[in-house]
Amino acid sequence: MGIVQLKAIRKEFSSLVAVDDVSFEAEAGQVVGLIGPNGAGKTTLLRMLATLLVPTDGTATVCGADLRKQPLSIRRNIGYLPDFFNLYPDLTLRECLDFFARAYHVPSQQVAGRVDAALKTVSLESKKDSQIRHLSRGMVQRLGLATLLVREPSVLLLDEPASGLDPMARIQLRDILRRLAQEGKTILISSHILTELSGFCTHIAIMNAGRLVMYGSVEEIERQIAGQQAVVVKVLGDTAQAERILRGLPSVEAVAASDHTFTLTCGGGPEVVAEINRSLVTGGVGVVELARHKTSLEELFMTLSIEKNLHIS
Predict the structure, then answer these.
(1) Which of 3, 23, 55, 192 is the most exposed place for a label (fewest CB within 10 A)?
(2) H or E stretch including 159?
(3) Taking a C-beta distance cutoff of 8 angstroms, is the pair 291, 266 a contact?
(4) DSSP letters for 228-257
(5) Alpha-carbon distance 50 to 187, whole Å?
(6) CATH number at 227-293
(7) Nearest to 114, CA basis, from 169, 153, 75, 159
(8) What is the pTM of this model?
(9) Over the stretch 200-250, which tens digit does the pLDDT of each residue have?
(10) Same topology for domains 4-218 and 227-293, yes or no?
(11) What are the CA-CA distances from residue 289 to residues 2, 27, 282, 283 (Å)?
């Protein structure tokens, strides 16, 4: 059973349907990126999972607790970081986390250890005695994450956490969240900027106008909407011989050549890459480099937008 399970969850605000019958599951250690334009329903969905909004219909469970019947149980297991949050600027980082730990009813004898562990996780130990007002925006975002970690939640719900961050701050935040996922935490993170999530999420949920357009692992969605893969081959020696071999392979649909590098359009899965390598080596061609081109989230979303006629502006 998934750590987070949504079953036909729906939220209406008068005549507006903000979330329309969304269903999916997320397991421990998965990072689910909620992707979609502004107004797609991402924030409303996260607020429902955080028990801040009551669904109009459908239900969900988080760590086995029912969203409607056991909201307090869910709150004990989640950490929710909204897109805009405020911290007391005159507190030091240590004081801030001490405050949050006690507000979350962390046992007194554990508070100091939890605070130190949270600061270490977000790489802010050196700033522990600095006032919050002196932090950069990226540091404030990491401190916001630390305020969740002092309670040691199983599920993190993060709404646009990288918004407004510079590239280095985004990389730092991404690395922290990747480590948390490796520790077994389930993370749901929303963004309308696909580069913020690229190469980071294990699964993506593409939303548009309140509906879940597609859900699955990045690889599954790539297979579903792309159907082909690009393979880049760099060879030594006789490029004419290499091209003849590549064009003769039944799995290769197109070949683009540039000097000693070939870009192939292929059907099939990883076994095709092995077939390409084997055929070239057997044919006496030295293979210097052979790699599958991993489709980016931007490419997946744009392909899906064209196929489904999504509104993405």
Answers:
(1) 23
(2) strand 155-159
(3) no
(4) -EEEEEEEES-HHHHHHHHHT-TTEEEEEE
(5) 13
(6) 3.30.70.100
(7) 153
(8) 0.76
(9) 788 989 888 899 988 988 777 766 655 566 788 999 888 889 889 889 988
(10) no
(11) 39, 35, 16, 16
| Cβ partners under 8 Å of residue 299, min gap 6 | 226
- Return the domain boundaries, the chain: 4-218, 227-293
Dihedral angle over CA of 276, 279, 284, 286, nearest 10:
20
CB 274 within 8 A of CB 286: no
Helix (H) or strand (E) holding 209: none
H or E segment and range at residue 198: none
Q: How far apart are the first and last CA of the chain?
A: 36
> What's the confidence (pLDDT) of residue 228?
61
- Encoded tokens for 212: 């879940």
Q: Cα(269)–Cα(251) distance, rounded to whole angstroms? A: 10
How far lies 102's CA from each of 82, 98, 115, 151, 175, in Å? Answer: 20, 6, 11, 9, 28
